[in-house]
Amino acid sequence: MDENKPMNNLPKPNKDLNSKRTDYLEWHDFFMATAFLAAKRSKDPVSQVGAVIVNKERKIVGTGYNGMPIGCSDDEFPWSKSSDPLKSKHLYVCHAEMNAVLNKNSADVKNCTIYVGLFPCNECAKIIIQSGIREVIYLSDKHAHKKETVAAKRMFEAVGIKYWQYKPENQRIVIDFSEIDWNNQRQVPYTPIKEILENNIDTSRKVPLTLDT
Ligand code: ZN
């Protein structure tokens, strides 16, 4: 094992504060991770799927996750897979791709790319096609055997929508809120509290403290 290589296979973090970081997120990782973060909003007990739509300028123009329609209570509508279709979630839940398209903050999503955790179903494929999205990047294809997925691929191929599976180099991207500890930053600008701590300033007198000897 290469001792110099970290466990996560990323280049060794560059601690030189005067040159570019090397362990930053690549674009594909960033957008797919954003889709996964959106999925964390889902109340679905079985599958949490997120989607992110990105334009040609690499700007996010829509996000979504699978959930009940607006106004249909998460507590009143079913989340199970019942044999009675009206008691099953499938007739009610809006998929992530549909929500991402409908949540768009741009005039349209023509020629955009959609990142999605799971290969789109046939209903979402129709929405993707009609919205003008031209590329689908997915992570899991676990339903490849299902007729919904087969139909989706058939439609994408018929209209020339490019689809491909993204294989991340790293299986984990950690979000650690404690990473930013402002009072321990080694770079300017100073925060007032840091100045006080490092220079041992008496805040009542605004002058450096001197020790009594
Ligand atoms: Zn769908």
- Sheet with the most strands, sense and barrel status: 5 strands, mixed
- Biggest sheet: strand arrangement: 2-1-3-4-5
- Gyration radius (Cα, Å) is 24 Å
Structural class: alpha/beta
Structure ligands? zinc ion
Q: Which H/E pattern describes the elements?
A: HEEHEHEHEHEE
Let me know the average pLDDT: 87
Report the β-strand fraction as a percent range: 5-15%
Tally of DSSP β-strands? 7
First and last CA, distance: 56 Å
Shape, principal axes of CA atoms: globular
Task: Specify the number of helices.
Answer: 5
If you had to describe this structure to a student in words, what would you say it looks like?
The chain is an alpha/beta fold and 213 residues long. The protein is 24% helix and 15% strand. The chain contains five helices and seven strands, in the order αββαβαβαβαββ. The protein has helices at 27-39, 96-102, 122-131, 147-159, 192-199; strands spanning 50-54, 60-65, 113-118, 135-140, 162-165, 201-202, 207-208. The strands form two sheets. It has a five-stranded mixed sheet. A two-stranded antiparallel sheet has the order 6-7. Strand 6 and strand 7 (207-208) form a beta hairpin. Helix 3 packs parallel to helix 4. The longest helix is centred in the N-terminal third of the chain and has 13 residues, at 27-39. 21% of the residues are buried. The model is unreliable at 1-8 and 207-213 (pLDDT under 50). Zinc ion (ZN) binds next to helix 3.
